[in-house]
Amino acid sequence: MPGAIQSLSRAAAILRLLAGGERRLGLSEVATGLGLAKGTAHGILRTLQQEGFVEQDPDSGKYQLGAELLRLGQSYLDVHELRARALVWADDLARAAGETVYLGVLHQRGVLVVHHVFRPDDTRQVLEVGSMQPLHATALGKVLLAYDPVARGELGDGPWEAFTPRTVTEPAALDAQCALVRERGWADAVEETWEGVASVAALIQDRRRNPVGAVCVSGAVETVCEGGAVRPSLVASVRTAARAISRDLGAHRF
Amino acid sequence: MPGAIQSLSRAAAILRLLAGGERRLGLSEVATGLGLAKGTAHGILRTLQQEGFVEQDPDSGKYQLGAELLRLGQSYLDVHELRARALVWADDLARAAGETVYLGVLHQRGVLVVHHVFRPDDTRQVLEVGSMQPLHATALGKVLLAYDPVARGELGDGPWEAFTPRTVTEPAALDAQCALVRERGWADAVEETWEGVASVAALIQDRRRNPVGAVCVSGAVETVCEGGAVRPSLVASVRTAARAISRDLGAHRF
DNA sequence: ACCACCGGTCGGCCATGCCGACCCCACCTG
DNA sequence: CAGGTGGGGTCGGCATGGCCGACCGGTGGT
Fold first, then answer.
1. Whether residue B254 has pLDDT greater than 70
2. What is the mean pLDDT of residues A218-236?
3. CB pairs below 8 Å between A and B: how many?
4. What is the H or E stretch that residue A230 is in?
5. Which one of A71, A208, B103, B141 counts the least CB within 10 Å of its CB?
């Protein structure tokens, strides 16, 4: 495969840099952060600004991400076939389970949330569509790790970050869990990412049985678990929903 | 101002092209659509794919937008100061008004929705964050047109598209409405975008009193209007919310 | 008043990305 | 099954487009 276009790769790196740091960044910060000459960084930033991918604060001259990214991100969702098919199933699942539902796909070294149904009560919740979850410490992630070789490859050898005392950080333990996931057909994560939160997830396949994503139900340990384990009825609901979405995608052809 | 980086502008054009067409596009379609040589288009697409901005369907070889855009779009929202300040006020406004609340900023020739609070009932609603609304046919748009010279410039001379019989399509009529908006301090749009839907909007300013966005309450004509005009209490709520957000941004310094 | 550092510009050199011809494969089509 | 068509993808040579480092003008701190 021939090489990549230099200026484009650099532009992407700049966008990621701006997305990473919470605050706005100055021209010099960007340039030194990526080891570029100031003039080079400026040229790229200028173009990105013209295209709307980057905005500049008139006072400080510092740069931040631009609105066009939001618009394009929305367009990504509009085209996303998995998400479109899953919308109604996710809704039903949330209602039946009485808990939050996430829909995630593999993206780089994490799970990207492409759909999110609020827990059906009136508490204030923030939409997490577009955010990333760790592969090794969530139910969504463990499903993808278990079935998608690419995901396991991306993750590398660990040890990985521990978010709680229960997070699995060692490769051997994680691979054992993945084997269990494949055997049972579903994954759980009880207080492995956040204290007090437990989740169950199941795989979604496309028409050729390739793993394309996962559904997950997530909620307080007190309501999701029973006697230390995830409630069987929840597991059943999640697996049924996953099968329904897969069927919708055409997985029933075999 | 020196010129833009060619390959970057082209890459942006490709992304917009992919965002525009609802379906996936092939290499040749992209190339001819933008008047590029196939090899050139391929090089850019290859790089965009490596960076995650574009994905390729393994079967058809066709291209679509990539997940990285969703992630970056989310990062844009995270950093967005106006949105962060407005979150809680928008929530209160929706609850008080019993209607949908939108928060919009000027972007190119339209209003980009950066926040959306669902109408506080249990009907199914789709999140419109990241979508665009027309400047000339929405309350949000008319506020921005009235106060932001850039917006008026972007819009050009018309006549503009009519979405309903009540849409304002002529420059003279629209400019008159903008004058009225400036005089009253708020804008309305009754069945100008969608039949049966009416909205009220007010301006949000930053610390230097520059227009940075607008808040809007939107709902069925039957509940929003009274005797052909928008209910005064709603207007008051919206204007109060807009002032509160502006104050939060530091507009009180004068 | 000075200096340090900021964002921004400029011009020359040369690596870089552009182009058009070419390849291979899948799918029609007669 | 041969031939044709159009798909995505590759390649190499030419020249152009973008990179770099030196250079501005303004600003805020000392």
1. no
2. 90
3. 160
4. strand A229-230
5. A208
